[in-house]
Specification:
Blueprint lengths: L11 H8 L5 E4 L6 H9 L3 E6 L2 H12 L4 E5 L12 E7 L4 H4 L25 H7 L2 H12 L4 H11 L5 H10 L13 H12 L1 H15 E11 L2 H13 L21 E3 L5 E2 L2 H6 L7 E7 L23
Parallel strand pairs: 1-2, 1-4, 2-3, 4-5
Antiparallel strand pairs: 5-8, 6-8, 7-8
């Protein structure tokens, strides 16, 4: 393998240990800088199909990918992964934004340096600037509240409308910061939740996740593994509920989520609890602090769709691109 990845994959050691022996065809549905793909190949995968919608990921991987015949790169979203492989031995998804995106101001994912309000992973379609400067106040507030879990969503939305046109990442961060209490030591920047919400809306990340989980079920061979790494509570809730709905962990239900009829579980949970990073890994890679890994093993039951509301997907009318 060539130069080390600038994006350090989290929880890779417990992932490989849980799915060993690694063999056959695996899908890295969020290829990024290729950290999980490299690890799977080194662990014994016969082939890895790396999927990413970001052209930058393919550009940066071109050198070492050309020298690795077991790696195939596909420009697409992971919600379409079953169009590229069937009977896979494993699918791994590392959700959220990658370091190579955050570290480039021109991509607009971070407010650490000033840049355009872009945030498009696929570098096409509606940008964050379009939402911030054109969306109605109600839609903007709903995005901030449901996708960023921002309690001051309506106050922030009103401030954004009053400040239009919003010209860049630092400008937006300042607007959000002016609406919230001063940051305390150890707390994340006040604009963090708002930037997360806009990124999720721009890239339809929750819709992609819901469709991607079902695509993985369709693509996996019996005995194959689905491994998903999440970084915030909404993503983890969606993955947890999907796996519960498609495993023997279903049942129960409530007045908000009716009991799940469980005739043919599509997955068996490898562990009922999410795997989290050790103190040693967190010390090496602070990004691992909030990461959770959930792993399930595919059965031979037919794949079945799971409604978005059943897995707790936030629904914001008009937010999807």
């Amino acid at each position: 393998m060539a130069e080390p990845s600038p994006h350090v994959p989290v929880l890779i050691e417990p992932l490989v240990a849980a799915v060993s022996p690694v063999a056959g065809t695996w899908v890295d549905g969020t290829f990024g800088a290729g950290g999980y793909a490299r690890a799977l190949l080194e662990a014994g995968a016969g082939r890895v199909i790396g999927i990413d919608r970001d052209p930058l990921a393919h550009e940066l991987a071109a050198g070492w990918a050309a020298a690795e015949p077991r790696l195939s790169l596909v420009p697409d979203t992971f919600s379409n992964l079953d169009a590229h492989v069937q009977a896979a031995r494993g699918v791994v998804l590392d959700l959220g934004v990658s370091s190579m995106q955050l570290d480039r101001p021109e991509r607009g994912f971070s407010f650490q340096a000033d840049g355009p309000l872009d945030m498009r992973m696929g570098q096409e379609g509606v940008s964050a600037a379009d939402l911030v400067n054109d969306a109605e106040e109600t839609l903007l507030a709903d995005i901030l509240f449901h996708y960023g879990e921002e309690r001051a969503a309506r106050r922030i939305a009103r401030a954004i409308l009053a400040a239009r046109p919003v010209t860049g990442t630092r400008h937006l961060a300042g607007i959000v910061e002016s609406c919230l209490p001063r940051q305390k030591p150890g707390q994340s920047h006040p604009a963090t939740r708002s930037f997360q919400a806009l990124r999720i809306a721009v890239n339809n990340e929750y819709g992609e996740l819901a469709e991607g989980l079902m695509a993985a079920e369709r693509a996996l061979a019996p005995g194959g593994h689905l491994a998903v790494v999440t970084f915030h509570s909404v993503e983890d809730r969606m993955v947890k509920r999907f796996l519960a709905a498609r495993s023997d962990a279903g049942g129960g239900g409530s007045r908000h989520a009716p009991e799940i009829e469980q005739k043919s579980p599509g997955f068996e949970l490898v562990s009922k609890k999410a795997v989290t990073a050790s103190a040693a890994e967190t010390a090496r890679n602070p990004r691992a602090r909030s990461a959770k890994l959930r792993i399930a093993r595919r059965t031979d039951a037919p794949a079945r769709p799971v409604p978005a509301r059943q897995i707790g997907m936030p629904l914001v009318k008009g937010a999807a691109p």
